[in-house]
Write a structure and sequence with these properties.
- Residues 82-230 form the RecA family profile domain.
- This is DNA repair protein RadA.
- With 467 residues, the chain is of the alpha/beta class.
- It has three domains: 13-58, no CATH class; 84-290, Rossmann fold; 295-466, Ribosomal Protein S5, domain 2.
- The protein is built from 13 helices and 24 strands.
- A hairpin with a 5-residue loop joins strand 1 (14-19) and strand 2.
Length: 467
Protein backbone atom coordinates (compact mmCIF):
# COMPACT_ATOMS: atom_id res chain seq x y z
CA UNK A 1 0.00 0.00 0.00
CA UNK A 2 1.35 3.40 -0.98
CA UNK A 3 1.96 5.90 1.76
CA UNK A 4 -0.15 9.01 1.88
CA UNK A 5 1.42 12.45 1.45
CA UNK A 6 0.87 13.31 5.11
CA UNK A 7 2.49 10.12 6.35
CA UNK A 8 5.44 10.65 4.00
CA UNK A 9 5.83 14.19 5.33
CA UNK A 10 5.64 12.91 8.88
CA UNK A 11 8.23 10.23 8.20
CA UNK A 12 10.68 12.80 6.83
CA UNK A 13 10.13 15.24 9.69
CA UNK A 14 13.39 16.01 11.46
CA UNK A 15 13.34 17.14 15.09
CA UNK A 16 15.80 18.42 17.65
CA UNK A 17 15.61 19.12 21.38
CA UNK A 18 16.30 22.67 22.51
CA UNK A 19 16.94 23.86 26.08
CA UNK A 20 14.38 26.42 27.16
CA UNK A 21 16.90 28.17 29.46
CA UNK A 22 19.98 28.65 27.31
CA UNK A 23 18.92 27.57 23.80
CA UNK A 24 21.42 24.72 23.42
CA UNK A 25 20.21 21.99 21.01
CA UNK A 26 20.64 18.23 21.09
CA UNK A 27 19.85 15.41 18.69
CA UNK A 28 18.23 13.30 21.44
CA UNK A 29 16.30 14.10 24.58
CA UNK A 30 18.16 14.06 27.90
CA UNK A 31 17.21 15.04 31.42
CA UNK A 32 19.90 17.68 32.02
CA UNK A 33 21.24 20.35 29.70
CA UNK A 34 25.03 20.03 29.47
CA UNK A 35 25.44 23.72 28.62
CA UNK A 36 23.64 25.36 31.56
CA UNK A 37 23.03 22.44 33.93
CA UNK A 38 19.24 22.92 34.08
CA UNK A 39 17.02 19.87 34.47
CA UNK A 40 13.96 18.95 32.36
CA UNK A 41 14.25 22.01 30.12
CA UNK A 42 14.68 20.27 26.75
CA UNK A 43 11.72 20.53 24.37
CA UNK A 44 11.12 19.10 20.93
CA UNK A 45 11.24 21.40 17.91
CA UNK A 46 10.80 20.65 14.22
CA UNK A 47 13.70 21.35 11.87
CA UNK A 48 12.55 22.53 8.46
CA UNK A 49 14.69 22.08 5.40
CA UNK A 50 15.69 25.11 3.37
CA UNK A 51 13.17 24.20 0.66
CA UNK A 52 10.37 23.87 3.18
CA UNK A 53 11.22 27.14 4.88
CA UNK A 54 11.24 28.97 1.56
CA UNK A 55 7.92 27.55 0.39
CA UNK A 56 4.84 29.43 1.65
CA UNK A 57 2.71 26.46 0.71
CA UNK A 58 4.56 24.25 3.17
CA UNK A 59 3.19 26.22 6.11
CA UNK A 60 -0.43 25.78 7.02
CA UNK A 61 -1.48 29.21 8.08
CA UNK A 62 1.28 30.76 6.03
CA UNK A 63 0.68 34.08 4.33
CA UNK A 64 0.65 34.83 0.65
CA UNK A 65 2.97 37.21 -1.01
CA UNK A 66 6.53 37.09 -2.23
CA UNK A 67 9.15 38.11 0.30
CA UNK A 68 12.25 39.74 -1.17
CA UNK A 69 15.50 38.00 -0.37
CA UNK A 70 17.62 39.95 2.12
CA UNK A 71 20.71 41.73 0.88
CA UNK A 72 23.72 43.32 2.49
CA UNK A 73 23.28 47.08 2.99
CA UNK A 74 25.65 49.73 4.29
CA UNK A 75 24.34 51.20 7.52
CA UNK A 76 25.22 54.69 6.32
CA UNK A 77 22.66 54.27 3.52
CA UNK A 78 19.85 53.18 5.83
CA UNK A 79 17.40 55.89 6.87
CA UNK A 80 17.05 55.89 10.64
CA UNK A 81 13.79 57.81 10.74
CA UNK A 82 11.72 57.67 13.91
CA UNK A 83 9.25 54.82 13.65
CA UNK A 84 5.63 55.86 13.43
CA UNK A 85 3.63 55.22 16.60
CA UNK A 86 -0.08 54.75 17.13
CA UNK A 87 -1.59 55.81 20.44
CA UNK A 88 -3.43 53.12 22.37
CA UNK A 89 -5.80 55.71 23.79
CA UNK A 90 -4.37 55.05 27.27
CA UNK A 91 -1.67 57.57 28.19
CA UNK A 92 0.06 55.45 30.82
CA UNK A 93 0.15 52.49 28.42
CA UNK A 94 1.69 54.69 25.71
CA UNK A 95 4.35 55.85 28.17
CA UNK A 96 5.43 52.30 28.98
CA UNK A 97 5.46 51.32 25.29
CA UNK A 98 7.77 54.24 24.54
CA UNK A 99 5.29 56.74 23.10
CA UNK A 100 2.75 54.43 21.49
CA UNK A 101 2.54 51.15 19.59
CA UNK A 102 5.05 50.68 16.79
CA UNK A 103 4.20 48.90 13.55
CA UNK A 104 5.07 45.20 13.67
CA UNK A 105 5.95 45.31 17.39
CA UNK A 106 5.55 42.12 19.43
CA UNK A 107 4.83 42.86 23.10
CA UNK A 108 4.71 40.25 25.86
CA UNK A 109 2.53 41.20 28.85
CA UNK A 110 2.90 39.11 32.02
CA UNK A 111 1.44 39.28 35.50
CA UNK A 112 -0.34 37.40 38.26
CA UNK A 113 -3.78 35.89 37.60
CA UNK A 114 -6.54 38.48 37.89
CA UNK A 115 -4.16 41.45 37.88
CA UNK A 116 -5.83 42.99 34.79
CA UNK A 117 -3.82 41.88 31.74
CA UNK A 118 -6.80 40.87 29.63
CA UNK A 119 -8.79 43.91 30.77
CA UNK A 120 -6.03 46.35 29.76
CA UNK A 121 -5.51 44.79 26.33
CA UNK A 122 -9.24 44.60 25.60
CA UNK A 123 -9.56 48.28 26.52
CA UNK A 124 -6.64 49.19 24.26
CA UNK A 125 -7.98 47.06 21.41
CA UNK A 126 -11.41 48.71 21.62
CA UNK A 127 -9.99 52.24 21.80
CA UNK A 128 -7.68 51.63 18.82
CA UNK A 129 -10.31 49.93 16.64
CA UNK A 130 -11.02 53.13 14.69
CA UNK A 131 -7.34 53.49 13.71
CA UNK A 132 -6.16 49.87 13.71
CA UNK A 133 -8.53 46.97 12.99
CA UNK A 134 -7.92 44.44 15.75
CA UNK A 135 -8.39 40.72 16.36
CA UNK A 136 -8.75 39.37 19.90
CA UNK A 137 -7.75 35.69 20.02
CA UNK A 138 -8.87 33.97 23.21
CA UNK A 139 -7.67 30.53 24.20
CA UNK A 140 -8.90 30.58 27.79
CA UNK A 141 -12.36 32.16 27.63
CA UNK A 142 -15.39 31.86 25.41
CA UNK A 143 -16.41 34.66 23.09
CA UNK A 144 -19.43 35.30 25.32
CA UNK A 145 -17.16 35.90 28.30
CA UNK A 146 -14.97 38.33 26.36
CA UNK A 147 -17.99 40.19 24.99
CA UNK A 148 -19.57 40.30 28.44
CA UNK A 149 -16.46 41.88 29.91
CA UNK A 150 -16.34 44.48 27.17
CA UNK A 151 -20.00 45.39 27.64
CA UNK A 152 -19.57 45.56 31.41
CA UNK A 153 -16.69 47.99 30.96
CA UNK A 154 -18.71 50.07 28.53
CA UNK A 155 -16.21 49.67 25.66
CA UNK A 156 -17.00 50.39 21.99
CA UNK A 157 -16.80 46.87 20.52
CA UNK A 158 -18.10 47.62 17.01
CA UNK A 159 -14.68 47.44 15.34
CA UNK A 160 -13.25 44.57 17.39
CA UNK A 161 -13.18 41.06 15.93
CA UNK A 162 -12.76 38.02 18.15
CA UNK A 163 -11.68 34.44 17.61
CA UNK A 164 -11.78 31.49 20.02
CA UNK A 165 -8.90 29.34 18.76
CA UNK A 166 -5.65 27.85 20.06
CA UNK A 167 -4.06 26.35 16.92
CA UNK A 168 -1.49 28.79 15.54
CA UNK A 169 -1.94 27.63 11.95
CA UNK A 170 -5.68 28.28 12.02
CA UNK A 171 -5.16 31.62 13.80
CA UNK A 172 -2.84 32.76 11.02
CA UNK A 173 -5.31 31.58 8.38
CA UNK A 174 -8.03 33.73 9.93
CA UNK A 175 -5.61 36.65 10.29
CA UNK A 176 -4.68 36.36 6.63
CA UNK A 177 -8.36 36.58 5.70
CA UNK A 178 -9.34 39.36 8.13
CA UNK A 179 -6.15 41.43 7.65
CA UNK A 180 -6.03 42.93 11.19
CA UNK A 181 -3.26 45.38 12.05
CA UNK A 182 -3.30 44.41 15.73
CA UNK A 183 -3.61 40.93 17.27
CA UNK A 184 -4.02 40.07 20.94
CA UNK A 185 -3.24 36.43 21.80
CA UNK A 186 -4.57 35.50 25.25
CA UNK A 187 -2.57 33.57 26.23
CA UNK A 188 0.63 32.29 24.60
CA UNK A 189 0.67 29.26 26.94
CA UNK A 190 -2.60 27.96 25.45
CA UNK A 191 -1.44 28.09 21.82
CA UNK A 192 -0.07 25.09 19.99
CA UNK A 193 1.17 24.11 16.56
CA UNK A 194 0.36 20.82 14.83
CA UNK A 195 3.98 20.42 13.75
CA UNK A 196 4.87 19.34 17.31
CA UNK A 197 3.56 16.44 19.32
CA UNK A 198 4.18 18.09 22.70
CA UNK A 199 1.28 19.27 24.86
CA UNK A 200 0.16 22.94 24.79
CA UNK A 201 2.04 24.99 27.35
CA UNK A 202 5.22 22.95 27.04
CA UNK A 203 8.53 24.66 26.36
CA UNK A 204 8.66 23.56 22.74
CA UNK A 205 5.05 24.54 21.98
CA UNK A 206 5.36 28.00 23.56
CA UNK A 207 8.61 28.63 21.72
CA UNK A 208 7.34 27.52 18.32
CA UNK A 209 3.95 29.24 18.64
CA UNK A 210 5.63 32.52 19.61
CA UNK A 211 8.15 32.18 16.77
CA UNK A 212 5.38 31.81 14.19
CA UNK A 213 3.51 34.85 15.53
CA UNK A 214 6.69 36.93 15.62
CA UNK A 215 7.52 35.97 12.05
CA UNK A 216 4.00 36.88 10.92
CA UNK A 217 4.21 40.24 12.73
CA UNK A 218 7.52 41.19 11.13
CA UNK A 219 6.58 40.13 7.60
CA UNK A 220 3.15 41.77 7.57
CA UNK A 221 3.71 44.78 9.87
CA UNK A 222 1.01 43.59 12.27
CA UNK A 223 1.44 44.52 15.94
CA UNK A 224 0.98 41.56 18.30
CA UNK A 225 0.30 41.46 22.04
CA UNK A 226 1.04 38.16 23.78
CA UNK A 227 -0.42 37.54 27.24
CA UNK A 228 1.90 35.40 29.37
CA UNK A 229 1.24 33.40 32.52
CA UNK A 230 3.72 33.69 35.38
CA UNK A 231 5.29 31.03 37.56
CA UNK A 232 5.21 31.00 41.35
CA UNK A 233 8.63 32.68 41.31
CA UNK A 234 7.16 35.60 39.34
CA UNK A 235 8.78 34.95 35.95
CA UNK A 236 6.88 34.34 32.72
CA UNK A 237 6.12 30.65 32.25
CA UNK A 238 7.82 28.94 29.34
CA UNK A 239 11.30 29.13 27.84
CA UNK A 240 13.54 32.06 28.68
CA UNK A 241 14.11 32.54 24.96
CA UNK A 242 10.49 33.77 24.72
CA UNK A 243 11.52 37.09 26.27
CA UNK A 244 14.39 37.40 23.78
CA UNK A 245 12.13 36.84 20.77
CA UNK A 246 9.74 39.72 21.48
CA UNK A 247 10.35 43.47 21.22
CA UNK A 248 9.04 44.43 24.65
CA UNK A 249 8.36 42.62 27.93
CA UNK A 250 5.87 44.30 30.29
CA UNK A 251 4.99 43.09 33.78
CA UNK A 252 1.78 43.94 35.58
CA UNK A 253 2.42 44.30 39.32
CA UNK A 254 0.16 45.10 42.25
CA UNK A 255 -0.87 44.10 45.72
CA UNK A 256 -3.95 41.87 45.83
CA UNK A 257 -5.39 44.10 48.57
CA UNK A 258 -4.90 47.32 46.64
CA UNK A 259 -6.76 48.68 43.64
CA UNK A 260 -3.62 50.22 42.18
CA UNK A 261 -1.67 48.45 39.44
CA UNK A 262 1.81 49.18 38.12
CA UNK A 263 2.85 48.30 34.56
CA UNK A 264 6.62 48.14 34.22
CA UNK A 265 8.77 47.65 31.11
CA UNK A 266 11.64 45.22 31.67
CA UNK A 267 12.64 45.17 28.02
CA UNK A 268 11.72 47.60 25.26
CA UNK A 269 13.36 47.97 21.88
CA UNK A 270 11.25 51.07 21.19
CA UNK A 271 11.55 52.98 24.48
CA UNK A 272 13.08 53.29 27.91
CA UNK A 273 13.57 50.24 30.10
CA UNK A 274 12.01 50.33 33.60
CA UNK A 275 9.41 52.84 32.43
CA UNK A 276 6.41 52.83 34.75
CA UNK A 277 2.68 53.21 34.18
CA UNK A 278 0.22 53.46 37.08
CA UNK A 279 -3.43 52.39 36.92
CA UNK A 280 -6.34 52.07 39.29
CA UNK A 281 -8.76 49.15 38.92
CA UNK A 282 -12.42 50.12 39.13
CA UNK A 283 -15.87 49.06 37.99
CA UNK A 284 -15.17 50.35 34.49
CA UNK A 285 -11.80 48.67 34.15
CA UNK A 286 -8.35 50.16 34.48
CA UNK A 287 -8.15 53.92 34.87
CA UNK A 288 -5.02 56.01 34.45
CA UNK A 289 -3.52 57.68 37.51
CA UNK A 290 -2.42 61.14 36.30
CA UNK A 291 -0.44 61.95 39.47
CA UNK A 292 1.21 58.70 40.60
CA UNK A 293 3.41 60.42 43.19
CA UNK A 294 0.32 61.15 45.28
CA UNK A 295 -0.66 57.48 45.68
CA UNK A 296 2.76 56.50 46.99
CA UNK A 297 2.57 59.04 49.84
CA UNK A 298 0.66 58.12 52.97
CA UNK A 299 -1.09 61.49 53.24
CA UNK A 300 -0.69 61.56 57.03
CA UNK A 301 -1.68 64.87 58.60
CA UNK A 302 1.51 65.07 60.67
CA UNK A 303 5.03 63.61 60.22
CA UNK A 304 5.45 60.15 61.73
CA UNK A 305 8.63 58.59 63.18
CA UNK A 306 10.31 56.14 60.84
CA UNK A 307 9.14 57.78 57.63
CA UNK A 308 11.09 59.59 54.92
CA UNK A 309 10.00 60.68 51.44
CA UNK A 310 12.43 60.13 48.57
CA UNK A 311 12.39 60.94 44.87
CA UNK A 312 13.09 57.88 42.77
CA UNK A 313 13.28 57.74 39.00
CA UNK A 314 11.46 55.07 37.01
CA UNK A 315 12.33 55.24 33.32
CA UNK A 316 11.83 58.88 32.34
CA UNK A 317 9.55 59.75 35.28
CA UNK A 318 10.54 61.01 38.76
CA UNK A 319 8.26 59.66 41.50
CA UNK A 320 7.80 60.63 45.13
CA UNK A 321 7.84 57.50 47.26
CA UNK A 322 7.55 57.12 51.03
CA UNK A 323 10.08 54.85 52.72
CA UNK A 324 9.06 53.51 56.14
CA UNK A 325 11.31 51.88 58.73
CA UNK A 326 10.60 50.12 62.00
CA UNK A 327 13.45 49.53 64.45
CA UNK A 328 12.70 47.50 67.56
CA UNK A 329 14.71 45.62 70.18
CA UNK A 330 15.31 42.06 69.03
CA UNK A 331 14.83 39.01 71.29
CA UNK A 332 16.96 36.98 68.87
CA UNK A 333 20.70 36.46 68.95
CA UNK A 334 20.72 37.21 65.21
CA UNK A 335 18.43 40.26 64.66
CA UNK A 336 16.27 40.28 61.56
CA UNK A 337 16.80 42.51 58.54
CA UNK A 338 13.66 42.60 56.38
CA UNK A 339 13.36 44.77 53.28
CA UNK A 340 10.17 45.01 51.20
CA UNK A 341 10.55 46.95 47.96
CA UNK A 342 14.34 47.03 47.98
CA UNK A 343 17.24 44.58 48.08
CA UNK A 344 17.83 42.98 51.48
CA UNK A 345 21.61 42.77 51.08
CA UNK A 346 21.81 46.50 50.46
CA UNK A 347 19.89 47.18 53.67
CA UNK A 348 22.42 45.15 55.64
CA UNK A 349 25.28 47.06 54.01
CA UNK A 350 23.67 50.44 54.77
CA UNK A 351 23.22 49.51 58.43
CA UNK A 352 26.92 48.67 58.62
CA UNK A 353 27.79 52.07 57.13
CA UNK A 354 25.42 53.74 59.61
CA UNK A 355 27.30 52.11 62.49
CA UNK A 356 30.80 52.71 61.16
CA UNK A 357 30.44 56.30 59.92
CA UNK A 358 27.36 57.55 61.75
CA UNK A 359 27.99 56.06 65.19
CA UNK A 360 24.48 54.53 65.28
CA UNK A 361 24.46 50.84 66.25
CA UNK A 362 21.53 48.58 65.32
CA UNK A 363 23.24 45.27 66.04
CA UNK A 364 20.73 44.38 68.76
CA UNK A 365 17.69 45.70 66.87
CA UNK A 366 15.29 44.18 64.35
CA UNK A 367 15.10 46.46 61.31
CA UNK A 368 12.16 46.40 58.89
CA UNK A 369 12.05 48.64 55.80
CA UNK A 370 9.07 49.01 53.48
CA UNK A 371 8.53 51.06 50.32
CA UNK A 372 4.91 52.28 50.37
CA UNK A 373 2.61 51.47 47.47
CA UNK A 374 4.06 48.12 46.45
CA UNK A 375 6.69 49.73 44.24
CA UNK A 376 10.18 48.23 44.07
CA UNK A 377 13.06 50.72 44.19
CA UNK A 378 16.13 49.44 42.35
CA UNK A 379 18.33 52.53 42.25
CA UNK A 380 20.86 53.73 44.80
CA UNK A 381 19.07 57.07 45.39
CA UNK A 382 17.14 55.28 48.16
CA UNK A 383 20.25 54.83 50.34
CA UNK A 384 20.06 58.14 52.21
CA UNK A 385 16.25 58.11 52.75
CA UNK A 386 16.45 54.56 54.14
CA UNK A 387 19.08 55.51 56.71
CA UNK A 388 17.17 58.65 57.71
CA UNK A 389 13.99 56.59 58.18
CA UNK A 390 15.90 54.02 60.27
CA UNK A 391 17.37 56.76 62.50
CA UNK A 392 13.95 58.41 62.84
CA UNK A 393 12.38 55.14 64.02
CA UNK A 394 15.29 54.35 66.36
CA UNK A 395 15.08 57.78 68.02
CA UNK A 396 11.25 57.85 67.80
CA UNK A 397 11.45 61.36 66.38
CA UNK A 398 9.92 62.32 63.02
CA UNK A 399 11.84 64.17 60.36
CA UNK A 400 10.90 67.82 59.82
CA UNK A 401 7.67 68.29 57.92
CA UNK A 402 7.78 68.53 54.10
CA UNK A 403 11.31 67.08 53.89
CA UNK A 404 12.58 64.87 51.09
CA UNK A 405 15.96 63.20 50.58
CA UNK A 406 17.84 61.27 47.93
CA UNK A 407 21.44 60.21 47.48
CA UNK A 408 23.74 57.21 47.29
CA UNK A 409 25.72 56.30 50.41
CA UNK A 410 29.23 54.96 49.84
CA UNK A 411 31.04 52.47 52.03
CA UNK A 412 33.35 55.20 53.30
CA UNK A 413 30.38 57.30 54.44
CA UNK A 414 30.33 59.78 51.55
CA UNK A 415 27.08 60.93 49.96
CA UNK A 416 27.29 60.47 46.20
CA UNK A 417 25.13 62.29 43.64
CA UNK A 418 22.50 60.52 41.55
CA UNK A 419 21.43 61.28 37.95
CA UNK A 420 18.77 63.87 37.08
CA UNK A 421 18.96 65.72 40.39
CA UNK A 422 17.23 68.84 39.06
CA UNK A 423 14.23 66.85 37.79
CA UNK A 424 13.88 65.20 41.20
CA UNK A 425 13.96 68.56 42.97
CA UNK A 426 11.40 69.93 40.53
CA UNK A 427 9.03 67.01 41.27
CA UNK A 428 9.38 67.59 45.02
CA UNK A 429 8.80 71.34 44.69
CA UNK A 430 5.70 70.69 42.55
CA UNK A 431 4.18 68.67 45.41
CA UNK A 432 4.84 71.35 48.00
CA UNK A 433 7.97 70.07 49.76
CA UNK A 434 9.99 72.81 51.48
CA UNK A 435 13.22 71.06 52.46
CA UNK A 436 15.57 68.66 50.65
CA UNK A 437 18.67 66.80 51.85
CA UNK A 438 20.77 65.83 48.83
CA UNK A 439 24.36 65.23 47.75
CA UNK A 440 26.42 68.36 47.24
CA UNK A 441 26.76 67.72 43.49
CA UNK A 442 22.94 67.58 43.14
CA UNK A 443 22.31 70.85 45.00
CA UNK A 444 21.94 74.19 43.19
CA UNK A 445 24.58 76.81 43.97
CA UNK A 446 22.01 79.19 45.43
CA UNK A 447 21.00 76.70 48.14
CA UNK A 448 17.33 76.86 47.17
CA UNK A 449 15.13 75.64 44.33
CA UNK A 450 11.70 77.13 43.59
CA UNK A 451 11.28 78.20 47.21
CA UNK A 452 12.54 74.88 48.61
CA UNK A 453 15.54 74.88 50.93
CA UNK A 454 18.18 72.49 49.59
CA UNK A 455 20.72 71.19 52.12
CA UNK A 456 23.89 69.91 50.46
CA UNK A 457 25.82 67.21 52.34
CA UNK A 458 29.05 65.38 51.59
CA UNK A 459 29.21 62.90 54.48
CA UNK A 460 26.67 60.72 56.22
CA UNK A 461 27.37 62.40 59.56
CA UNK A 462 26.32 65.76 58.05
CA UNK A 463 23.06 64.33 56.77
CA UNK A 464 22.21 62.80 60.13
CA UNK A 465 22.95 66.11 61.85
CA UNK A 466 20.63 68.07 59.55
CA UNK A 467 17.90 65.43 59.85
Amino acid sequence: MAKTASSTSSAKRRTAYVCGECGADYAKWQGQCDACGAWNTLGEVVLESAAQAASPASRRGGWAGKVDAPKVTALADVRADAQARVSTGIGEFDRVLGGGLAEGAVVLVGGDPGIGKSTLLLQALALMAAKLPGLYVTGEESLAQVAGRGQRLGLPLDGVQALAETCVERILEHALAAQPKLIVADSIQTLWTDTLSAAPGSVSQVREAAARLVRYAKETGTAVFLVGHVTKEGGIAGPRVLEHMVDAVLYFEGDSGSRFRVLRAFKNRFGAVNELGVFAMGDKGLREVPNPSAIFLSGASAPQPGSCVMVTREGTRPLLVEVQALVDASPLSNPRRVAVGMEGNRLAMLLAVLHRHGGIMTGDQDVFVNVVGGIRVQETAADLPVLLAVLSSLRDRPLPEKTIAFGEVGLSGEIRPVPNGEERLNEAATHGFKRAIVAKANAPKSGSYKGMQVIAVERLAEALEHA
